User: Fold this.
Amino acid sequence: GNSVTQMEGPVTLSEEAFLTINCTYTATGYPSLFWYVQYPGEGLQLLLKATKADDKGSNKGFEATYRKETTSFHLEKGSVQVSDSAVYFCALSDGAGSYQLTFGKGTKLSVIP
Amino acid sequence: DGGITQSPKYLFRKEGQNVTLSCEQNLNHDAMYWYRQDPGQGLRLIYYSQIVNDFQKGDIAEGYSVSREKKESFPLTVTSAQKNPTAFYLCASSIRTTGSYNEQFFGPGTRLTVL
Assistant:
């Protein structure tokens, strides 16, 4: 079956530090990959996506590249802000006709001034 | 504005009672989903529906029931058979596609607490 593995948190960084959250996956077919963000007490918002190998998704200074050879989709940001404090979820949608998303367990990020 | 609404935001119920969580979308999406989120865990799929009057069980359907009588509505009932119902419940919807791309849009969630 499909699975997504994220680095365990929580992650605490100082403002303007570099962020990497690792994500690796196992899937059948040719999955699409997503990063979702959840701010405290809210639902999930799509942060970025990549639908095929070597695609780079980007949004709000965050980036992730779909690496098929390493089955990875690591999230990066060059300079984090306090407002980036949230829980980040990596997810995949496989190409087998399923409409389901498979999520990682989430990584909580706290950015301190 | 298009989006997904869930109500109520907070819900309390006594043990042994059934409770229904509302989810409405005006995005004209065919597919809708219910997830459960527990502290420190990812989202787990309860039920999903690809089209009106049809739905399928997800990974943790036991103790839950759903209906899909209208395209825009997908209510979830947490029954007394659900052994540990206290959790954060998220509803989502997506365009129904035949490809792999399946961006889901989420509602703000309902936090259910069983007293």
About this structure: Chain B touches chain A at residues 4, 6, 31, 33, 40-43, 45, 48, 50, 58, 90, 92, 94, 96-109 (CB under 8 Å). DSSP finds no helices and eleven strands in chain B. The longest strand of chain B covers residues 43-51. Chain B has a mean pLDDT of 90.
